[in-house]
Amino acid sequence: MIQLPLSKLSNVGTTIFSQMTQLANENEAINLSQGFPDFMPDAELLDQVNYFIKKGFNQYAPLGGIIGLKEEIARKIENSHKAIYHPGTEITVTAGGTQAIFTAIAAFIKKDDEVIIFEPAYDCYEPTVELFGGIVKRFEMKAPDYTIDWSVVKTLISDKTKMIILNNPNNPSGRILKEEDIQELIQLVKGTSILILSDEVYENIVFDGKKHLSICQYPELKERSLLVASFGKLFHVTGWKVGYCAAPKNLTDEFRKVHQFNVFCVNTPIQLALAEYMKNDEHYTHLNQFFQEKRDFLRQGLANTSFELLDCEGTYFQAVKYSAISDKNDFDFATELTISHKVATVPFSSFYKNKLNENVIRLCFAKKEETLERAIENLSRL
């Protein structure tokens, strides 16, 4: 047998999302672990995709994306955040948000470059940085409020700091950045060449009248930022894997150098369908209300249980603390929930490098009401 070279990601195994979904399937459990809806997207959007497939639009799209879709993306960003991006040179359609994140890191991070992330963190950030020789510096946000102490973040900055990765709203905590956070960040990067990679895939899922503050609203941050978003989250089509990256032309030029050799282009008929569908703003402007009703349904159903419901300002994930129910670590508790109580969740420790255990798990509420109802019934027996 051939001797394989040392793995570039020797500490990386199967993601926690895949593990918990597999465990859910094996135990016929209700899957509130992996973040995908269990309901159908709008039939109008599906009809549009079918139309363009049958019309013969089934070959390669342009490298940066179909111009009609990029124009709609630019219009959405301008309407939402009063920020201008040129559709042709500053917006790139990607194969989902994760590919955009991977490409941005690949384009700019070299050996020994330092990248600051905020934990709990989406699982693709750190391995991608390490894949390209970068060094991850972490700030741990902790339960119950997951706030950022920017004076501590400042101590992580060095002359090797190349990038700061933000996730706003944050998966898994549901926390959103406030104006004071943005102002602290502005001061932190002022006078530096630090780039910002802003993962905003849940930007349209913010609750209780609160406002999503995009990095592109602030000119001093926009000029150094790559903004990532996802149609999977916007239109309940996570399996289509279509997203985009918006960035100033000089950053987009570098981004596309990698993008062209990574995926080159993205699904043609789906891009055309999305472009048509986005012409009606109402297809996404009420998304916050749609998911707030699901969040509130889940919270009300669990209100009389022994779970402590943490604040959920955005995303479609609810964090709950289970200290009053069990003293098991979160991975073991999540495993027990799946096997014995038939509800699959995700342990928060999987979002921390040091496996910080605060007895918190994540529940996805992007589900049909009957799915949530069954999960609530099972969890209420604990």
Write the layout of secondary structure elements.
Elements: H1 16-26, E1 30-31, H2 43-54, H3 67-81, H4 87-90, E2 91-94, H5 97-108, E3 114-119, H6 125-131, E4 135-140, H7 150-156, E5 161-167, H8 179-189, E6 195-199, H9 219-222, E7 225-230, H10 231-235, E8 243-246, H11 249-262, H12 268-277, H13 282-285, H14 287-302, E9 308-309, E10 317-321, H15 330-340, E11 343-344, E12 346-347, E13 360-364, H16 369-379
Parallel strand pairs: 1-11, 3-4, 3-5, 5-6, 6-7
Antiparallel strand pairs: 2-8, 7-8, 9-10, 10-13, 12-13
Helix pairs in contact: 2-12, 3-12, 5-11, 14-16
What does the model show?
This protein has a 7-stranded mixed sheet with strand order 2-8-7-6-5-3-4, with helices on both faces. A 4-stranded antiparallel sheet has the order 9-10-13-12. The chain has helices at residues 16-26, 43-54, 67-81, 87-90, 97-108, 125-131, 150-156, 179-189, 219-222, 231-235, 249-262, 268-277, 282-285, 287-302, 330-340, 369-379; strands spanning 30-31, 91-94, 114-119, 135-140, 161-167, 195-199, 225-230, 243-246, 308-309, 317-321, 343-344, 346-347, 360-364. The model has no long low-confidence stretch (mean pLDDT 97). By secondary structure, it is α/β, with parallel strands linked by helices. It contains 16 helices and 13 strands. The chain is 40% helix and 15% strand. The radius of gyration is 21 Å and the shape is globular.
